[in-house]
Design a protein that fits this description.
Mean pLDDT: 84
Strand content: under 5%
Largest sheet: none
Oligomer: single chain
Radius of gyration: 22 Å
Structural class: mainly alpha
CATH architecture of the largest domain: Up-down Bundle
Shape: globular
Number of strands: 0
Distance between the termini: 5 Å
CATH topology of the largest domain: Growth Hormone, Chain: A
Low-confidence stretches: 1-5, 466-472
């Protein structure tokens, strides 16, 4: 069907707003909880390693199950998966607020991730199905605002709630939002039409869970355990063997969880590869910058949160514009320009030092946020537009999985490079002061992230702007 012949859903903008309300809960919850970790440590009399699992359990469960949810969306309908996810997340949030011990809290955080993965996996698919191809980029760009708004709002909201109330409030705040989101989505999100009876690929789901879970675990703790330790190398072996077994099985399964033929499409493969590199570079910056601000510039936590919101605000403002432009100009060159801007911003960050002023930091972070917006909205549109309608759930799940793997990989790569260079500078004769060694490690990590972003820019160019499969 050509773009001129498409009949847009008259409720499409209402559907978008409802999906955005659910989408904002994930980033708000994640950033709020991160701010509250020291408070949780004191409240439960738990060490930092234990409290860290409040965030890690959420990320591990989220990252390993999203691909499965995309497939379930194709099988049972996106609306069912979306509503189930909102319901589980809301109930688990209330349970987190009532947790009597740290380990009970960690368990309910994992349950929260089960729900969050559902609405994160099918959200882009619902939007793509509701909008015609000539408005898809704009719609996905506006949806990206909810993610950026959540990331920008989270630290400030967390600080406010912890100031005026107890830690229980950071979880209870999700309950009214979740209830409102469930009611609205139940009312406006349409049921998926013409569902065919399909069999769920249990073996593929298990193999994918094992491979992805091992990858995320080793990426998160490899530095702490030691990259050459028996545990780390053993998990690497599980990742390799699990991935090989997953691919072997999916090629032979009559109804695979992941349709590997999607990767025969150059747009789909290249855009996902570029997204992986973009999220890796993004999280290298996001992870290390607070340490620089606190340990080198002696900023307070509230000052760190304020400075870090510059990137989210820039993304919030530019994402819808980038999405709309991609509908007119195509996705390829906008995605490339965004990756170039991210690369340039990371290289410029190597010029920061112990005496850098807030303005100098802010404009670099602003450029970084503009680059993210220019890349992500058009790139998401390219991925979703290259997927046939009966595989929108899987396509959306792959994109969400790539995002989570990139987040963990970015932290792992940046930590490894930083530690390597920091230690090397302290061991040389006449070693530099600790601040000098820190800045050396930080600059090396940002250069490594810039290289990855640059490779992502190249990946954005090896495809073209062919007519999206979803529009045909």
């Amino acid at each position: 069907m050509s773009q001129a012949q498409e009949a847009p859903d008259p409720r499409r903008w209402t559907i978008l707003m409802a999906v955005m309300l659910s989408a904002i809960m994930g980033p708000v919850d994640g950033s709020v909880v991160n701010v509250a970790l020291p408070t949780l440590s004191a409240a439960f009399h738990a060490g930092l390693n234990t409290v860290g699992w409040v965030s890690m359990a959420y990320l591990l469960v989220l990252g390993t199950l999203i691909l499965t949810y995309g497939r379930l969306g194709d099988m049972f309908g996106f609306r069912r998966v979306l509503l189930a996810g909102i319901g589980i997340f809301t109930v688990a949030s209330a349970a987190c607020a009532l947790a009597p011990t740290i380990w009970v809290l960690i368990a309910f955080r994992a349950l929260q991730a089960v729900g969050a993965g559902m609405f994160m996996a099918v959200g882009p698919a619902i939007i793509t199905a509701a909008f015609p191809a000539y408005e898809r980029g704009r719609a996905l760009g506006i949806n990206a605002m909810s993610i950026a708004a959540g990331l920008a709002l989270g630290p400030a909201l967390g600080g406010f709630l912890l100031t005026v109330s107890t830690w229980h409030a950071i979880f209870l705040i999700n309950v009214p939002i979740g209830i409102a989101s469930f009611i609205w989505c139940h009312k406006v999100v349409p049921r998926t039409e013409h569902l065919t009876r399909q069999k769920f690929d249990v073996a593929g789901a298990v193999l994918g869970f094992v491979a992805l879970g091992s990858l995320l675990l080793v990426g998160s703790y490899g530095q702490e355990w030691g990259w050459a330790s028996h545990l780390t190398t053993g998990l690497f072996a599980v990742v390799v063997l699990g991935t090989c077994a997953f691919v072997w099985w999916e090629r032979r399964a009559p109804q695979p969880m992941l349709d590997l033929s999607l990767f025969h499409n150059r747009v789909f493969s290249a855009a996902n590869a570029a997204a992986l590199l973009n999220f890796t570079a993004q999280n290298a910056m996001v992870f290390l910058m607070p340490f620089y601000l606190q340990q080198v510039l002696n900023y307070t936590p509230s000052q760190v949160g304020l400075v870090m919101t510059v990137t989210a605000v820039a993304t919030l403002l530019v994402a819808p514009v980038a999405g709309a432009l991609s509908d007119r100009l195509g996705t390829r060159w906008l995605a490339f320009s965004g990756q170039v801007a991210v690369t340039l911003a990371l290289l410029l960050m190597t010029g920061l030092g112990p005496a850098s002023r807030p303005v100098g930091i802010a404009w670099r972070l602003g450029l970084f946020g503009v680059g993210l917006a220019l890349f992500q909205s058009p790139n998401n549109s390219a991925v979703m537009g290259s997927v046939p309608r009966h595989r929108l759930g899987v396509g959306s799940g792959v994109l969400a999985t790539v995002r989570n793997v990139g987040m963990v990989t970015g932290i792992a790569v940046s930590t490894a490079v930083f530690t390597w260079q920091y230690s090397a500078r302290l061991k040389v004769p006449g070693a530099m002061p600790t601040v000098g060694a820190f800045m050396g490690g930080l600059r090396a990590a940002y250069v490594a992230a810039a290289i990855l972003a640059g490779v992502g820019a190249v990946a954005s160019l090896v495809r073209d702007d062919a007519l999206p499969a979803a529009a045909k």
